[in-house]
Specification:
Blueprint: H1 2-18, H2 21-42, H3 52-58, H4 61-94, H5 100-112, H6 115-126, H7 131-140, H8 153-176, H9 181-189, H10 194-222, H11 226-231, H12 239-249, H13 253-281, H14 283-286
Helix pairs in contact: 2-13, 3-13, 4-5, 4-8, 4-10, 5-8, 6-8, 8-10, 10-13, 12-13
């Protein structure tokens, strides 16, 4: 009887192991093979392996500017997402107003929208020929647009903050729904000011969601391509846009592959920090994993 059970267990193990092959094949064909080609191209032509291209690209002013813009935009957008996401989540969760539940449900819808839609809306509103500038030029009898921040680094940061703030709000709203309203009512009845209630009652349980949501926003903004390209900010070249420029416009595939490898390494590092943040601050409780 024991031999039969052992044989059945062995067959089940082999059967379970067989299910691993299809996803591994798909990953190998669609992910690891293209990634290997990019890495191989960055190391030189076929038959040679050289890190000279890495030294040349990493020492170039163009790469330094792209990396600086990428970091500044990612940090600025993430900070904006954290501030706006925290404020909006508090308003929706703890300040009763008509449509609060609808606003909470709307967050999931905004997350599903393509990023270029927000950028297109910004262009219609804040662009040189947008609604705001057209109204101001007509009202003040101006010949040139008065509002000109959209086609700059600040315009990119504002657009990315708008797009990715829901990624902070979603875990925050899930966390706030678990806070006992009686604690806030008792603290308020005892004379605690709103800021003290936020600092001592709301903020501590919100920290896991803030850290995890902020880490995710940082990862997404570092790799954002569509918003930067669609806005067309002058002189604002991030690493993804630089890869596109080198590969598509200049046909310099080796330089593009070198920058792509650096960008992938940066993304993997940020993703590792994101996973560590979730594990450390209890991301499962925040509804993130």
């Amino acid at each position: 009887m024991a031999d039969v059970a052992t044989a059945a267990s062995s067959r089940d193990s082999r059967w379970d192991g067989g299910w691993i092959l299809p996803p591994l094949i798909v990953l190998g064909v669609l992910f690891f093979y293209p990634l290997g080609l990019i890495l191989r191209q960055s190391l030189g032509d076929a038959g040679t392996v050289s890190f000279a291209a890495f030294g040349t690209v990493l020492a170039s002013r163009e790469f330094h500017d792209g990396l600086m813009h990428t970091i500044i935009i990612a940090l600025g957008s993430t900070a904006g997402c954290l501030v706006l996401g925290f404020i909006f989540s508090i308003v929706i969760a703890f300040i009763p107003f008509p449509g609060a539940r609808f606003c909470g449900r709307l967050i999931d819808t905004v997350i599903a929208l393509p990023t270029f839609l927000v950028t297109l809306a910004f262009t219609f509103i804040y662009g040189s020929a947008g609604l705001l500038n057209d109204s101001l030029m007509t009202l003040l009898h101006l010949d040139l647009p008065l509002v000109d921040f959209l086609y700059s680094q600040w315009g990119v940061i504002l657009a990315e903050t708008t797009v990715y703030t829901p990624f902070v709000m979603r875990p925050l709203l899930a966390t706030f729904s678990q806070i006992d309203q009686a604690q806030i009512e008792v603290a308020s009845s005892l004379g605690a000011r709103p800021w003290r209630i936020v600092r001592q009652i709301i903020l501590p349980p919100a920290m896991p969601a803030l850290v995890a949501g902020g880490s995710l926003c940082l990862l997404l903004t570092v790799n954002e391509f569509g918003i930067v390209l669609f806005i067309g900010a002058k002189g604002v070249i991030t690493l993804p846009v630089l890869i596109y420029s080198k590969a598509i416009q200049e046909f310099d595939y080796q330089t593009a592959c070198v920058i792509a490898v650096v960008n992938v390494a940066l993304s993997l590092g940020l993703y590792s920090l994101y996973r560590v943040a979730i594990a450390h601050f209890g991301g499962r409780r925040a509804g993130l994993v």
